[in-house]
Specification:
Elements lengths: L7 H6 L3 H17 L3 H19 L7 H13 L6 H4 L20 H29 L7 H28 L16 H24 L1 H6 L1 H37 L4
């Protein structure tokens, strides 16, 4: 069925072709209309800049940049899309049964649902860097930009991929009017804790090495982006197969009250 291009959501979904466009458009509406989405997304864009002075203390001349770079892993990679991305089917509840009768393959269905948080998260990498540079009063090194993009997109691919697996193996029916801070299933909580722990871990590594070493070995972050991308691509393939095999179990869980 072809989507009707009568809203910004549908115009965005048109990029994915007539088969996936309706599902992409519907998923995009879920994300954007989730309570507090705009506020939390905005905070994730400005978060690295706000926390840089607090965590970037020390004699290193680029300490603020190292602190901001470390927090990108949580704010950009995971923070703003947390309630939906790690429980992608939770808002469907009993409506999840529609996938039993869909003419779209399970793999294509998962890809359509996965591309939305990725497409929303990708601009936050660029926006967060732009906000940081507005308040940066030192010379901007090209290696700093490469590091920011490598860490941002690497963490985004990693945590979005992990979020797809928690969506399949630890789904939970949730009210669409869910507010941030409500109890999440164990798998989602673990994923959130890991993403938060990555901030001080990266910051400690950066400060121990120093900005000179971090900038000199900027290519390590680029190389680290490759396995993150490979993991995400593997997830799209493997999780699509898992969705087909777990539909009955997931429906039983999602039909329960939140």
């Amino acid at each position: 069925a072809e989507a009707t291009w009568n809203s910004p959501y549908d115009l965005f979904a048109a990029v994915f072709g007539p088969t996936l466009a309706p599902l992409v458009g519907k998923t995009l509406r879920y994300y954007v209309r989730t309570p507090m989405f705009t506020l939390i997304y905005l905070f994730c864009v400005i978060g690295p800049t706000l926390l840089a002075p607090a965590f970037g203390r020390g004699p290193d001349p680029l300490a603020h940049f190292l602190a901001a770079l470390a927090t990108v892993s949580f704010f950009v990679g995971y923070g703003g899309l947390r309630p939906v991305a790690s429980n992608a089917f939770g808002f469907y509840c009993s409506g999840f049964c529609r996938y039993f009768f869909s003419s779209v393959s399970s793999r294509s269905t998962l890809r359509a649902i996965a591309f939305v948080p990725l497409a929303l998260g990708a601009p936050s990498v660029l926006l967060s860097l732009g906000v940081f540079l507005v308040f940066w009063n030192r010379v901007v090194d090209l290696r700093m930009v490469i590091l920011w993009f490598s860490v941002g997109f690497g963490e985004l691919l990693l945590f979005q991929g992990l979020g797809l697996w928690t969506s399949l193996f630890s789904p939970r029916a949730r009210d669409f009017e869910i507010q941030y801070g409500k109890t999440l299933p164990m798998a989602q909580n673990i994923l959130m804790i890991v993403s938060m722990a990555s901030c001080p871990a990266l910051l400690a590594i950066f400060l121990v090495l120093g900005s000179a070493v971090v900038l000199a070995y900027w290519w390590v972050a680029v190389l680290a982006l490759l396995p993150a991308a490979a993991f995400y691509l593997f997830t799209l393939r493997g999780a699509g197969t898992a969705l087909r095999g777990r539909r009955e179990q997931m429906l039983k869980i999602l039909e329960r009250n939140p």
